[in-house]
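Quick question: who can interpret this fold?

. . .
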Amino acid sequence: MDMAKKIFILAFLFINALILSSCALQQPTVNFIEYKVNSVTTDGVELMFLFQVENPNSLDVNLVSYKYSVAINNRQLIQEVRNGFNVPRNSKKNILIPVKVSYNQLFGTTLGVLDALVRGDKELDYKIDGELNIKFMEIIFKVPMTSQGKIPIPKDITF
């Protein structure tokens, strides 16, 4: 093989390696940001959970869909699958999960609410488990989405 062919092959391999390394996928991440108590009524509470998806790649990724379940005080309240969206390269996008919860769902009955307040319960446990289905170059990646913690029982519950 002559020297020109060797140089051409080496240059070709070097350029392909460079292109492939620049396209190497870093798995997008999802982080829990916060929750907010949106409203408190005589029937229940509306909560909003905010997650943020980060795409560290130099190419856009397609969040095909995401699914999640929400449990409060170990009672599963919601299980949903939602359509996704595009996450532009080197950017972040938010996922907002609204949760409307009646006091009957939380405590069984209105008397259960009063009983919890009389016992001095001040907070509720919550847990969100989910998964993002992200498509990048025709490959689907599953990225976990999770958060758990405590939510204060609203002080302004009225009957």
Observations:
- The chain has one domain: 27-152.
- The beta strands are 29-40, 44-55, 61-72, 75-87, 91-102, 123-136, 139-152.
- The first helix runs from residue 3 to 22.
